[in-house]
Design a protein that fits this description.
This protein is an alpha+beta fold and 275 residues long. Helix content is 47%, strand content 15%. The protein has 12 helices and 11 strands. It has helices spanning 20-29, 85-101, 105-118, 138-147, 150-153, 155-160, 162-177, 195-198, 201-214, 229-244, 249-262, 271-274; strands spanning 5-10, 13-19, 37-40, 47-48, 80-81, 120-121, 128-130, 180-182, 185-186, 221-225, 264-268. The strands form 4 sheets. It has a 4-stranded antiparallel beta sheet. It has a 3-stranded antiparallel beta sheet with strand order 7-8-9. A hairpin with a 2-residue loop joins strand 1 (5-10) and strand 2.
């Protein structure tokens, strides 16, 4: 019996190494099946267990030594996407219309991502697919659809909603990354960026508002913006949570807008420069 160690793939993850005796035990218990991808030192790439002579029934025939490949990988290369001009335009318009109509937004968006990912070509990841379900983040798409009308209501409301849109984009990115598969096998991909880092807009927005205030001239007083980046961040997250339940949206919006406006202050000109 060979004394080599084996790896096998399960649910998109690489497991091992296991001594051959243990791998055969896993085969006997059904944990490793004929279509399970396996690899051991000397093999050029991952293969199905049934394709390894003798592995499922007797002593295997092992190739000569070689370096271990990345699971599912076939080296580097450039990504590409195969989308026609008109199909892309048509599906993009359908996406936009779906968001504007709000109710069909989850179905339209999920369908769009499935189509786009299926047209994406990634080296070493054949038959790439997106497996996210409509019910996973339905509220995110509903909120995006509702917020698309903010600009028609009030420009300031639209600006206030920018942080919320950024937070929803962070949730969307995590959902997309965690629902990819190749050849029917889920990929062990995850977006682990912290929302605190992703939502750096809170500090950028704060700095931007202070810069705007410093450049307002023509009166004996100047405008100050007193909110901190952290203050903007946690209140925006709380506002987004309230909006996720739909019904509290008017009250959450009034609370957030009231707080935001209260952070502006008129002070004697020159006070900020001396602070």
């Amino acid at each position: 019996m060979s004394n080599r160690s084996w790896f096998y793939a399960s649910e998109g993850q690489q497991l091992g190494p296991y001594p051959e005796a243990q791998l055969r035990d896993l085969i006997g218990r059904g944990s490793v099946r004929a279509d399970t991808l396996v690899w051991t030192e000397g093999m050029a790439g991952w293969q199905k267990a049934a394709e390894i002579p003798g592995l499922m029934s007797g002593p295997p025939s092992i190739p000569q030594a070689g370096g271990p490949p990345v699971l599912g990988g076939r080296g580097g290369g450039t990504l590409s996407i195969d989308v026609g001009l008109w199909p892309l335009l048509g599906r993009s318009l359908l996406y936009i219309i779906g968001l504007l109509l709000v109710i069909p937004a989850p179905w339209v968006a999920t369908s769009f991502y499935r189509w786009a990912v299926s047209r994406l070509h990634v080296p070493g990841r054949p038959n790439l697919a997106f497996n996210g379900q409509v019910g996973d983040l339905w509220y995110v798409f509903v909120l995006m659809g509702l917020m698309s009308y903010a600009g028609f209501y009030d420009t300031y409301v639209q600006l206030l909603l920018i942080p919320v849109q950024a937070f929803l984009s962070w949730m969307l990115l995590r959902w997309l990354a965690s629902n990819l598969s190749s050849n029917g096998q889920p990929l062990p991909i995850a977006f682990n960026g912290s929302p605190l880092t992703f939502i750096g807009w809170a500090w950028v927005t704060t700095a931007f508002m202070r810069w705007n205030c410093r450049n307002i001239d023509g009166t004996r007083r100047e405008v100050a913006f007193n909110a901190s980046g952290l203050g903007v961040l946690w209140r925006t997250i709380l506002f987004a949570v309230g909006c996720a339940f739909i019904i509290p949206i008017p009250w959450a919006l009034r609370w957030f807008a009231g707080w935001y406006v209260s952070q502006f202050e008129l002070v004697e000109r020159g006070t900020l420069a001396n602070a």
